[in-house]
Amino acid sequence: MLFEDTYRTIENPAEGLFRDRGSKFLAFAYPINSENELKNLLPPLKSAHPKANHHCWAMRLGIDRSVFRINDDGEPSGTAGRPILNTLLSRDLTNVAVVVVRYFGGTLLGVPGLINAYKSATEDALNQAKIIEKTVNDIYTIGFEYLQMNDVMKIIKDDNLTIISQLFDNNCSIQVSIRKKQVNQTLTKLNKLNVGIKYDYSH
Fold first, then answer.
1. DSSP state of 2
2. Per-residue pLDDT tens for 91-137?
3. In the chain, where are the structural domains located?
4. Is 2's pLDDT higher than 70?
5. Which of 23, 129, 147, 203 is 20 to 30 A from 189 in CA distance terms?
């Protein structure tokens, strides 16, 4: 299988709502790039909804969609975090966290009712969000002499690379973002120019 170099995520935070027999389920969907971001999102939500009974969540991270976490926050196991996560899975979304805040309405909803409520609230939030497709890119720094500028710029333009930063002096360097599946093709062209190419591990 070829490496997938695109993934679907949401562009902006979004909110959804589901009600059932007096209980209110408020869903908050966020685009995230790390687990720490989710940790920072939870305290403000908890202070905004201090009377809520549960703050359940699920997140899915990673371009290969391999990292996920769920938290039922006191709801019966499998009735909250799992349906939220399953909704992310069924929509093929990653780098997303959804927190569902529940206000208990006095009537027990039972396991099927809870699963449906957490799923429906999540779906409502995702329906409000703008779904976008992003490409997976590698970052490289190209080092070259000033006289090679035109040749290097031509490759950057032909291969439609995104320039992140550039420094033009006697020795020049340009940091570019190259889409995963075209890395080999671009590097082959650059190697013919005898320029320096360095992979950036920090991204």
1. P
2. 999 999 999 999 999 999 999 999 999 999 999 999 999 999 999 89
3. 6-134, 137-199
4. no
5. 203
In the prediction, which pLDDT does 1 show? Answer: 37
Helix (H) / strand (E) element for 47: namely helix 35-48
**Is the domain covering 137-199 a CATH 3.30.70.120 domain?**
yes
**E strand map for 21-91:** 23-31, 54-61, 67-71
Q: Is the pLDDT of residue 3 over 60?
A: no
Strand arrangement, sheet containing 96-103: 14-20, 23-31, 96-103, 54-61, 67-71
Q: Token pair for residue 39?
A: 């940790």
Pick one of 3.30.230.30, 3.30.365.10, 3.30.930.10, 1.20.1250.20 as the CATH number of 6-134: 3.30.230.30
Write down the residue that tokens 């993934």 correspond to.
7
Contact 16, 128 (CB under 8 A): yes
Share above pLDDT 90 across residues of the chain, in percent, rounded to a whole number? 89
Torsion of Cα atoms, 141 then 167 then 157 then 190, to 10° = -40
C-alpha–C-alpha distance, residues 98 and 19, integer Å: 17
Asked if residue 185 lies in contact with residue 147, where contact means CB atoms within 8 angstroms, the answer is no
Q: Are 152 and 158 in contact (CB under 8 A)?
A: no
Coil, strand or helix at 123: helix
Whether residue 46 contacts residue 56, with contact meaning beta carbons closer than 8 Å, is answered with: no
